[in-house]
Amino acid sequence: MAKHPFSFLHFLLCCCFFSTLLSPSLSSVEVEALLRFKKQLKDPLHRLDSWKVSNSPCEFFGVSCDPITGLVTKISLDNQSLSGEISPSISELQSLISLVLPTNLLSGHLPAELNKCINLRELNVSVNNLIGTLPDLSELRNLQILDLASNYFSGPFPSWVTNLTGLVSLSLGDNNYDEGEIPESIGNLKNLSFIFFARSQLRGEIPESFFEITTMESLDFSTNNISGNFPKSIAKLHKLYIIELFANQLTGEIPPELANLTLLQEIDISRNYLYGKLPEGLGQLKNLKVFHIFENNFSGEIPAGFGDMRNLLRFSTYRNNLSGEFPANFGRFSPLKSIDISENQFSGGFPKYLCESGKLLFLLALGNKFSGEFPGSCSKCRDLRRLRIKENLLSGEIPSGIWGLPEVVIIDFGNNEFTGRIPPQIGTATSLTELHLENNKFSGKIPPELGKLANLGKLYLNGNDFSGKIPSELGVLQQLSSLHLEENSLTGLIPAELGKCAMLVVMNIARNSLNGNIPESFSLLTNLHSLNLSWNTLTGSLNPDNLKNLKLSSLDLSMNQLTGIVSSNLLQMGGDKAFLGNKGLCVEKCLKIQMHSGLKVCRGNNTKEELLLFFIILGSYFSWLLGCNLPGM
Questions:
Q1: 205 in Cβ contact with 183 (< 8 Å)
Q2: What is the rounded distance in angstroms from the CA atom of residue 455 to the CA atom of residue 478?
Q3: Across all residues in the chain, what is the average pLDDT?
Q4: Is 256 helix (H, G, I), strand (E, B) or coil?
Q5: Nearest Cα to 597, choosing from 621, 568, 622?
Q6: How many whole angstroms separate alpha carbon 17 and alpha carbon 448?
């Protein structure tokens, strides 16, 4: 027994001795192979500068070696901005167990010679620009991780992967394969825990053998043409924590057995043809973080258990037929970041605990039947980016804290029955790009503080009862592209400062009680496509110079008190209807004939022919008078 330690030590010394004998020749072979690999690459970041003959390959950047033999075992060059092609010389690295080259700009074909790297356990060339049909790599029986995703591979879907029975992780998605099916033999991969086949042009049903892979933890077959009923057998995969089946052609109902997958954290089955009620058991999935079922045909109510969830982050059910009252405690106990329940039939009071954690970024509930007041608790959402609750039956005043949310980009309260005023706090919402308040019962003056919103691109205040003057401060909004103030009770002059809103594409301030002239500054609005000033009491001469630089596709100045001549340019932009109801407007006779205009002809603006005829008649008359007064006549 005492001899054993010395025997083992002797063995190690022998191994080291022979490895030193073998290393120089093997090392030179590997150096040469690696330098040929480098030669086919462009390296703008100079990451491969250490790859040179004078260095050991173990000193090359991104290269690892076996500590005993000194042979290359790993190459890891993730996200190094490398371009060029993968050299077949890589196959000469017989001890290579890991080749990791993702997130570069590599192009060309994947070398078939990689099949010689029989010790390879990990091959990752994802997120590159590789092309062509995938070579058969089924000789790589030691592979555990194969990631070829997000390239431009074409040809048949690589069914040979089902021979790689040691695979734990398989990513083939996001490529340009021919249309095909998931191989029936996929069930051979008994050790698989991660599969990514998204965007792979797959059709047909998921093979039943797939649901025998009980080690499966994450599946992604999204954005394909997979059909058939939602697979009931998925309930066999008890280790599943991610299901991504969105954007397919699945039909049928969600089986109640899905609720048995208690480890589930993410479910996305959106954009299918699924229907029926949501199983009550889904509300008991306590680990659930993401629940997306949007753009299906689900009906009924949200299971009450969703109100008690502790981990829910993202919840999206938009464009279904879900109805009833929302779970009372929804969001109360979970760190909710986004919710989109738009375009359903939800009714009752608006859920009041959505901002309880203060982490909500997106709140979208447009197109439902929520009624009552909007909860003041939503003022807690200090990081809220998008707030859209248009087209409901909500009423009362908006809580004051909502108006000044510092990070909000879109506020959309349109098409409800809200009342009250826009408070000065709106000026602190400096991230705002869109403000939609149209078709409510808001009143009072439009606050000049809106001029502080330098990022504001769309302002919809139409269909309310705003009064007073249009604030001249709106003229500083250099990003403003849409201005809708129509159908209010605004008075006074149109501020000339609006002509400074160089990005304006649409301006509609119709159906108010505005007076005065059309500002000359409007000639500066060269991006304007649509202008509607109708149904006001605008006066003054219609000066063509004010609008001569505009290239409008829509113009309406009707039902005002404008005077003057309508130019051919304006008549082409708006037609007769754009000028109706202005008794002082007219067109020249030649233009009336030429453009078949129904507008009246201008008096005192005769054509040259009419003036010539007038002078001829006048001359004849004087000649007759002169003849009558001659002696003897």
A1: no
A2: 8
A3: 92
A4: helix
A5: 568
A6: 86
Return the pLDDT at 28.
85
Could you tell me if residue 439 is left (phi over 0), alpha (psi between -120 and 50 degrees) or otherwise beta? left
Per the rule left: phi > 0, alpha: psi between -120 and 50, beta: everything else, 247 is left
Residue 473 token pair: 């401060």
According to the 3-state scheme, what is the secondary structure of 499-523? HHCCCCCEEECCCCEEEECCCHHHH
Range 130-147 average pLDDT: 97
pLDDT of residue 126: 98
Q: 568 in helix, strand or coil?
A: helix
CB-CB contact of 263 with 215 (8 Å): no
Q: Using DSSP bridges, classify how beta strands 194-196 and 218-220 pair: parallel, antiparallel or unpaired.
A: parallel
297 strand-pairing partners: 275
What is the helix (H) or strand (E) element at residue 620, kind and residue range?
A: helix 608-628
Q: Which of 76, 78, 72, 81 is nearest to 46 (CA)?
A: 81
Residue 293 is given by DSSP the state -
Strand partners, 145: 122, 169
What pLDDT digit, counting tens, does each position of 79-106 carry?
999 999 999 999 999 999 999 999 999 9
Residue 13 burial (CB < 10 Å; 0-12/13-18/19+)? exposed
Beta strands 72-76; 63-65: pairing state: antiparallel
The model's pTM is 0.88
pLDDT of 254: 97
Q: Which helix (H) or strand (E) holds 468?
A: strand 465-468
Average pLDDT, integer, range 360-373: 98
**Which residues, listed in sequence order, are joined to residue 437 by a DSSP beta bridge?**
none
The reported pLDDT for the residue numbered 609 is 47
pLDDT digits (tens, 9 = 90+) for 509-548: 999 999 999 999 999 999 999 999 999 999 998 877 777 7
DSSP 50-90: T-STTS-GGGSTTEEE-TTT--EEEEE-TTS--EEE--GGG
CA distance 330 to 348: 14
CA distances from 453 to 186, 292, 469, 505, 612 (A): 56, 34, 19, 18, 60
Report residue 596's pLDDT band, with 50, 70 and 90 as the boundaries.
Answer: confident
What residue type is assigned to position 473 of the chain?
Answer: E
